[in-house]
Amino acid sequence: VGYEDGSVKIWDMKTASCLQNVNGKDIHSSSVVCIDCHPDNNLILTGSTDATAKVIHSSTGKVVTTFNCAEENSEDENSVESCAFSYTQSSLAATGTLTGKLSIWDVPTQTNRNTCQHTGGVVKLKWDTTSPLVYTACLDGVVRMWDARNGKCCLEWSGHQDAVLDFDISRDGKTLVTASEDNTARVFSLHKPDS
């Protein structure tokens, strides 16, 4: 669980006991906004309003690496609003910022593989469960699908009049459902953008 003071606590769900308590000063200098667990449960990825994402070892509570997500020479807020590990390529993670930057990170080498720029801030991202694709929901009202291997935008789903605040993909991988600040929800076919 991430906290406003930048700290992270790792809880045992069965016993409701705290396994690790990583103090804010040791991890983030401001609020933790997003968090994800690696599919192997050995790593945790956190994103913060301090423009960083941290990879934490779940059993020791030690920070493994820090990804700097700040835009150089940007006066916009660089908050990391969404972060996630890949389901299909265990070495990859992604972060999305309010400046509209989707970054694909190689965790073992601690390097940025690709940066994908959006016209609006990224508020949520989600990895495809079967391929190296990342979906992003943005303040510009568009959901996009990116190929993590080359950083190219593959498809876009639009139609909202305001920011897309949340989305999900059906279990069968055929449908995309969005919720927007325009007070509407939309259902899209994943294989037919804008329909």
Features:
single chain, 195 residues, mainly beta, Methylamine Dehydrogenase, Chain H, four-stranded antiparallel β-sheet, 1 helix, globular, WD40_rpt, repeat, WD repeat
Structural class: mainly beta
Widest sheet: strand ordering: 3-4-5-6
Helix content: under 10%
Number of helices, where a helix is a run of at least 4 consecutive DSSP H or I residues: 1
Stretches with pLDDT under 50, minimum 5 residues: none
What is the name of the CATH architecture?
Answer: 7 Propeller
The topology string of helices and strands comes to EEHEEEEEEEEEEEEEEE
Amount of beta strand: over 45%
Distance between the termini: 37 Å
Mean pLDDT: 92
Q: Which CATH class applies here?
A: Mainly Beta
| Number of DSSP-assigned strands | 17
Q: What sort of overall outline do the alpha carbons produce when their principal axes are compared?
A: globular
Tally of separate domains: 1
What does this structure look like?
By secondary structure, the protein is mostly beta strands. The chain has one domain (8-161): Methylamine Dehydrogenase, Chain H. Helix content is 2%, strand content 51%. Strand 15 (164-169) and strand 16 form a beta hairpin. The protein is globular. The N and C termini lie far apart (37 Å).
Could you write a compact summary of the structure shown?
Keywords: Repeat, WD repeat. With 195 residues, this protein is mostly beta strands.
